[in-house]
Amino acid sequence: MNELFTDIGYNSLIKDGEEVCGDRVEVAGDGEKSTVVVLADGLGSGVKACILSTLTAKMLSTMLADGMSVEESVRTIAQTLPVCSERGLAYSTFTAVRVENNRTVEIVNYDNPMPIVLRGGQAYDYPVSTFHVEEKEITRTHFTLQDGDTLVLLSDGVQHAGVPHGGASYKLGWGRDNIVSFLEIFAQTGFNAKTLTTVLLGEVYERYTAQPGDDSTVCTISLRRRRQVNLMIGPPANREDEHKMMSLFFSKQGKTIVCGGTTSKIVAAYLDKPYRPGPPSDDPDVPACGEIEGVDLVTEGVLTINRVLQYAQDFLRDNDTYTQWGYKKDGASRIARMLFEEATDINFFVGRAMNPAHEDPDMPIHFSIKMRLIEDLAEALRKMGKQIKVSYF
């Protein structure tokens, strides 16, 4: 497996007064040998723009992921999408990025703002050339990626931020140079791609005074080293498997998370270290953490994981709860930061032992619910692009 990982996160603001977004992001490829990302911006806004951008993004991403050359792919799109007779503009603009083996990147851009590339916390001035297809000028660049490089793709609504809905001129918009300066502030914070996207779109929303004058989309692509996190929850169904489960868990590289009271006791005994209660939780709905020497994080079980799942599901939508899990110190927030922000590869060690307390009919938590929580969390993390392995004991 390649030691580097391509982290992708995107989101959009819909133009004030519209029901759907006229921008579209599509991701294709296997995520290892080749990753393709396309951001398309349909002309105008609303349903028509949404249909045109969706058609463009899906067609272009599929062709590039199937190995078709850039020229041939763009030519097909150029021939498919006509030019608006009134404005003399294409019905959809686009930016396409193809990352090969997490090492090299090729970017083709047609009438979208040029992607911003951050390297070492500063804007990187990458080489650019142009070619023409069907009388359309296409900008292209190709360069070798470095660990920590971040690419930020934008639709023009981001650069226009500051002009309210109905504004007649974009002269007061935010502008590329100001966006670059803003991104450079956050470039070395360790934010993952989705969080950096969230922060940038939050600023766009504020500059539009909560009334976006145009569809605004940000797609962030970050290259970083793989990091493994291992999470254990629940004791094994057969007590004779405790040593096997513990030895496999602690043989893994990366950070460790142990969830659940009984599980923590077993871990403490295995490590021959005392379990110590941690400080009170700063969230009244999330139980306090504990401490065991040799374990990075010790938390309560099902209630905490349920909150992490809620954060994960929101992360995949608008990431509105980032202001909670991104800063709080309770167990669920700390797990969320480790899984969402730090980890690229996550191993779940799930014990199938029944907890008698969970089988009490007066308790809202049952064994089947716990299993479903883990399955749903694993699936949400896969959708974030994480490599997930779940082992049951």
Helix content: 25-40%
- The CATH architecture name of the largest domain reads 4-Layer Sandwich
pLDDT < 50 runs, ≥5 residues: 166-170
Number of domains: 2
Q: What portion of residues belong to β-strands?
A: 25-35%
Terminal Cα span: 26 Å
Shape: elongated
The order of strands across the largest sheet is: 2-3-4-5-9-8
3D structure, described in words:
The radius of gyration is 24 Å and the shape is elongated. It folds into 2 domains: 4-225, PPM-type phosphatase domain (Phosphatase 2c, domain 1, 4-Layer Sandwich); 228-392, no CATH class. The chain has a 6-stranded antiparallel sheet with strand order 2-3-4-5-9-8. Helix 1 (46-65) packs antiparallel against helix 2, helix 8 crosses helix 10 and helix 8 (302-316) runs parallel beside helix 11. It has helices at 46-65, 70-80, 156-159, 176-186, 193-207, 242-251, 261-271, 302-316, 322-325, 331-342, 367-383; strands spanning 4-13, 23-29, 34-42, 92-100, 104-110, 116-119, 122-123, 129-133, 136-144, 150-154, 216-225, 228-233, 255-259, 275-277, 290-292, 297-299, 345-350, 387-392. Mean pLDDT is 90; it is low at 166-170. 33% of the residues lie in helices and 28% in strands. With 393 residues, it is of the alpha+beta class.
